[in-house]
Design brief:
This protein has 339 residues and is of the alpha+beta class. Helix content is 27%, strand content 27%. It contains nine helices and 20 strands. A hairpin with a 2-residue loop joins β17 and β18. The structure holds uridine-diphosphate-2(N-acetylglucosaminyl) butyric acid (EPU).
């Protein structure tokens, strides 16, 4: 049975560096340890439970009165290959970016557009991480998950996971599932994914029209370093809001009024807008509310200027949402998860 610690500081376990304490915290580094925990009285008695990966998409709004389960499962390996792909599995507690770089070093391409995203392998499917024209769901072969209601292990396929834009079954049923490992399908007939114009420019400047996956990864890393704050230096949780998706009629009304509005047509006829642009138009880019700032190089990212609490973040986020609503009639939805 893994050790359960009491009254544990969570400050270092969330990339926003928000102060909070957990009534109880346990680190799981084996599946048998997890099974022992699920049988244990402290699991059954916990008023609330929180499965924690890298803590990079979380806002602690106060202390957590329940049990935090920090996933520390480690390991990664090639589990199969055929003419089409390599199948590579990683345990949920592996660092995402280290895993991506390891696959590239082995010569297995496919995850390079998702380089430098903070967090763990197990958290990646929860919000279906995406960047520069690729979402992780596209590369998932299967997942091994534990149903925390009865302790049973299941193998899920992507079709079982209700993946959507920054959304999944796991995000919709918080507390129900613990992702133990993820198996990826990495294509042998790899083509660089350069739909995102800024990435295409960055890649072509150094590698022309036929880059390697490693060169694409390096380009993504350069772009992210230019635009996004490094959580090791400035507390943040990445994009704070989702990019809103509106129907065609609403888009037509907005576009008539705001000609510069960045927009991305969706397969279903709706249109995705850039929340960062909307927020910037409201004058928030680089602005602070108390210790919470709107990042000067990417308005979609809120940052901790030092000493911010979760309540400070909630206050800033509410004000931004209200101003975007007043100006554009659009309701921003948080991407980060409030605990
Ligand atoms: N924009 C502005 N002002 C800003 C920020 C953006 O005008 O302050 C404009 C940009 O000029 C561009 C458009 O908005 O025309 C889109 O901006 P960007 O390409 O930087 O991406 P994003 O839509 O703001 C999304 C993801 C990021 C991901 C990038 C690249 C969401 C919520 N965010 O951001 O993901 O890295 O695209 O693919 O979908 C994350 O989820 O944590 C994250 C960082």
């Amino acid at each position: 049975m893994p050790v359960v610690r009491r009254d544990v500081a969570l400050d270092a376990l969330n990339t926003f560096r928000l102060p909070a304490r957990a009534a109880q915290l346990v680190v799981i580094d084996t599946l048998s340890g997890l099974q022992a925990l699920l049988q244990n009285e402290c699991w059954q008695a916990a008023p609330r439970r929180l499965v924690l990966g890298g803590g990079s998409n979380l806002v602690f709004t106060g202390d957590f009165s329940g049990l935090v389960v920090k996933v520390g499962l480690r390991g990664r390996q090639l589990v199969g290959e055929d003419e089409q792909c390599w199948r590579v599995a990683a345990a949920a507690g592996e660092n995402w970016h280290d895993f991506v770089r390891w696959t590239l070093a082995q010569g297995w391409p496919g995850l390079e557009n998702l380089s430098l995203i903070p967090g763990t392998v197990g958290a990646a499917p929860v919000q279906n991480i995406g960047a520069y024209g690729l979402e992780v769901a596209e590369r998932i072969d299967s997942l091994t998950v534990v149903d925390l209601q009865d302790g049973r292990l299941h193998r899920l396929l992507p079709a079982d996971c209700a993946f959507g834009y920054r959304d999944s079954l796991f995000k919709r049923q918080p507390g129900r599932w613990l992702i133990a490992s993820v198996c990826f399908r990495l294509p042998r007939s790899w083509q660089p994914r350069l739909d995102y114009a800024e990435l295409a420019r960055e890649v072509q400047a150094v590698a022309g029209m036929a880059p390697t996956a490693l060169q694409v990864s390096e380009a993504v890393i350069r772009i992210r370093r230019r635009k996004l704050p490094d959580p090791a230096e400035i507390g943040n949780a990445g994009s704070f809001f989702k990019n809103p998706v509106v129907d065609a009629a609403a888009f037509a009304r907005l576009a008539a009024r705001w000609p510069g509005l960045p927009h991305y047509p969706q397969p279903d006829g709706r249109v995705k807008l850039a929340a960062g642009w909307l927020i910037e138009q409201c004058g928030w880019k680089g602005r602070n509310l108390g210790p919470v700032g709107c990042f000067e190089r990417q308005a979609l990212v809120l940052v901790n200027r030092g000493g911010a609490t979760g309540q400070d973040v909630v206050r800033a986020a509410n004000l931004i949402r209200a101003e975007v609503r007043a100006r554009f009639g659009i309701e921003l939805e948080a991407e980060a998860v409030f605990v």
